[in-house]
Amino acid sequence: MSLQGKVALVAGATRGAGRGIAVELGAAGAIVYVTGRTTRTQQSEYKRAETIEETAALVSQAGGKGIAIQVDHLVAEQVERLVARIRAEHGRLDILVNDVWGGETLKEWNKPVWGHNLENGLRLLDLGVRTHLITTHFALPLLIERPGGLLVEVTDGTDDYNATHYRINPFYDLAKVSVNRMAWAHAKDLAPHGATSVCITPGWLRSEMMLEAFGVKEENWRDATQRIPHFAISETPRFVGRAIAALAADPDRARWNGQSLSSGQLAQVYDFTDLDGSRPDAWRYVTEVQDAGKPADTTGYR
Predict the structure, then answer these.
(1) What whole-number distance in Å separates Cα of residue 175 and Cα of residue 179?
(2) 237, 205 contact by CB (below 8 A)
């Protein structure tokens, strides 16, 4: 999977899936612009320690070139300046990964629209939907200047799963379904320019925030399965990163245009693994085991 000489932008790369994606694109040799709101000197409302500078350093350590730029993707002028800088420095954009989120602390579980904090719910939609539209508005004109560009919209849940399952609350549900549909819509506009648009979801992600919530670290994550047995199907952020790197390196990637994909699904096609050598197929497991009410058993699913 060589992406040598390719220029990528991972929007929302401070932590979690965005960081894992940026690192794996770097490992394949790409120049990767990583954006987010938290830097060494300024924090977002998450008030967490991870920074875009750390992500950029990890990209470079993996073999690529990481470039950190602080951007609030709700501010159109900042996104416009970001794309102008990429154009000035490299004159091209080959891969755009829209992973902007930031709504984890805003969602309330199993709350109807009248029971959920309205301000938080609307902020969640701004962070999860408007940011993606603002970013593609400014970045896609540069991406389509050369044939073969790739847009990846990152969400939670495949199109099929989200179409038949209520996701937490109306605000979260709408945000994640919107991203699925957004990728499909962009595919119609990009195809005439020789570019590809897909939506990709990781499975149950062992992000920094998830590990912290479960009181474990990556080294002992399996300890959490004693309390949450189905956590056994979880995956590292690097797994979805490998999925996107494989897709970007595929000369026949246009066959996926407009489709909703998962990291586990692409692992079967492109023959990559997670860091532990396994291939967790989380969304098939969630449907066939977890949602079916069966005891946790990953046999045949990783």
Answers:
(1) 7
(2) yes
Q: Give the residue numbers spanning the domain of 168.
A: 7-205+236-284
Q: Of 186, 187, 236, 171, which Cα lies nearest the Cα of 210?
A: 236
Residue 149, domain member (yes or no): yes
What's at 125, amino acid-wise? Answer: L
Does residue 211 belong to any structural domain of this protein? no
Q: What pLDDT is attached to residue 45? A: 86
Within 144-277, where are the H helices? 159-164, 170-190, 208-213, 237-249, 263-270
Q: Tell me if 190 is assigned to some domain.
A: yes
Which of 161, 153, 144, 33 lies closest to 85, judged by CA? Answer: 33
pLDDT of res. 43: 87
Place of tokens 């690529």: 64
**Looking at the 3D structure of the chain, how many domains does it have?**
1
pLDDT value, residue 10: 98
d(CA 278, CA 256): 24
Phi and psi dihedrals of 117, rounded to 5?
A: -60, 120
> What is the pTM assigned to this prediction?
0.97
pLDDT tens digits for range 85-119: 999 999 999 999 999 999 999 999 999 999 999 99
pLDDT value for 47: 86
The average pLDDT across 205-218 equals: 96
Asked if residue 227 is part of any domain, the answer here is no
Q: Tell me, what CATH number does 190's domain have?
A: 3.40.50.720
